[in-house]
Amino acid sequence: MFKKPLSNIKTSAPLRNSDRRKLKQRVIQAYGISPELGDLLVPDGLMSQKVVTYSNDPGVLYLSSEGDPLWFTIGKGADDLIPTVYTLWKKYNLLPRISTPEAVIPILVRGADLMIPGVVQVSTPTVLPQQLVSIVQHTDGSTSTCGPPLAVGRLAVDSNTLKTGAKGKAVHVLQTWKDHLFDMGNKVDPPGEMELKEDEGGDDDAPQSEPSGDDERQETVPDDVATDPNRTNGAASNALPPAESLAPASVPQISTSAPSEPVFSKEGKICPGRSYAPTETPAEIKQEKREKREEEERSKVREMEVKELWKPHAASGSAKFFIEGGFDSSVLYSYSELKSAVNKYVDARQLTNPQDRSYVNVGTDEVLLSTVCAKGEAPESVEFLRQQDIVQRLSENMQSWYEVQAEGKDAVLKKGQLTPISVVVKVRQGRKASTLVTGFEPFFLEGEEMADELRRLCACATSVSPAPGKASGLEVLVQGKQIKAVTEFLLSRGVPKRWIEAAALKGKK
């Protein structure tokens, strides 16, 4: 779900105390945990952020005060609060665990789902389809320890199917370590293996050891743990008893002066450990405060809403697809509406491939084949396509439109492909650098006003001239390497970050 960058990210906003308490109560009820553990998993200083995934699914992220994504929801009006690996590292057994060989983990990180042959052990005897589960790396050691969760997903089959050694998908992966959602946080390394203590109704936090203070607890790790990727899922599916019946293991105490794994404070903040970044320097703290202040300033300005739209085009043949499918060929479609139209067309004509339902038999439908087949492309090369590839090819054969709406201004709807604002640094004659800004007109920005503001912010000379190689449009020139200053200015005016492209180019000497 997050194997590709998010297509739209709104500005994050602090969660009110009353909203945080409601969120905490939802987590407590959904996962059957204690209020104390709820404070750890839903800490103070939480922020919410609306996003849109690369597949155009809307969602909401809940971030810690340090910027780590802790929870998320996906889908319009979705109620399910899904924990990220950052949250599961605070409580390993919040979800049922499925272990998989070490060699499978990189494949999951690249965006694949977990297949049934890759399942080694299940922590609970009964699991149901659509149930949230965590995926851990299989270890050949004491059953009272487990590795850190590295992925979160929904079960695709029941526990009986997992035990029979069938083929197919076991878990639809939603979020993983090292995916684009994870990279929004501090990108810390996963903790090591943790001791699992007997869970009494969710009141005890599973990975924990003897308390090291009034407001903190120390997690302990066994030193020697070896992975066994050769274990089969058939033999091991019944090997691990339920997580609730695991007895505590005897593990060595680790010095609190140099912890080998992260320590979590009462507020849910990660304290420095060997696997984490060292204590921040005063300069870094000052930089963080400045960035936080700038973020608060930007949050006061409502971000522009930018929509990419497409219209059926008779000349390219896309209009025929909409007419044959019973859709309106005279209106504009968003990406999600195109996706819905393709789904309805495929379902109505039963074009889904029976062997692999993620593919569509394009070759059996003449209209669909002529729509997605590019000029000069052999029809047999597109005989089978994924639905997302069909949507992409369909949009390429349609007229591009866009709509930009800013607070206090009328929405602007225009035909054509919207391109991001270009912020480019060019270095000429070896040392002289200048920053050039073009393509800002669709975002309600004026060249002269922008030049005046950047002259004040950057304390340097600016100028405005016609953009070279373009029939219309202006180019704002700012002396020096000012990519960061220009980008912050554009963000402060409500331009979404994904519609700003920055680059440094070297000119002729």
**Class from secondary-structure proportions:** alpha+beta
Largest sheet: 6 strands, antiparallel
The value of Rg in angstroms is 27 Å
The number of helical segments is 13
Mean pLDDT: 80
Span between N and C termini?
Answer: 46 Å
Counting DSSP E segments of at least 2 residues, the number of strands comes to 27
Uncertain ranges: 198-278
Shape: globular
Percent in strands:
15-25%
Helix amount: 10-25%
Helix/strand layout:
Blueprint: E1 8-9, E2 13-14, H1 17-31, H2 35-41, E3 47-52, E4 58-63, E5 69-74, E6 82-83, H3 85-88, E7 97-100, H4 105-109, E8 114-115, E9 121-122, E10 132-137, E11 145-146, E12 149-155, H5 159-163, E13 169-176, E14 194-195, E15 216-217, H6 233-236, E16 263-265, E17 270-271, H7 282-299, E18 305-311, H8 318-324, H9 335-348, E19 359-361, H10 366-372, E20 384-386, H11 387-396, E21 399-405, E22 412-415, E23 421-428, E24 432-438, H12 447-458, E25 462-466, E26 474-479, H13 483-492, E27 500-506
Parallel strand pairs: 7-10, 23-27
Antiparallel strand pairs: 1-3, 2-3, 3-4, 4-5, 5-6, 7-9, 8-13, 10-12, 11-14, 12-13, 15-16, 16-17, 18-21, 19-20, 21-22, 23-24, 24-26, 25-26
Helix pairs in contact: 1-2, 8-10, 9-11
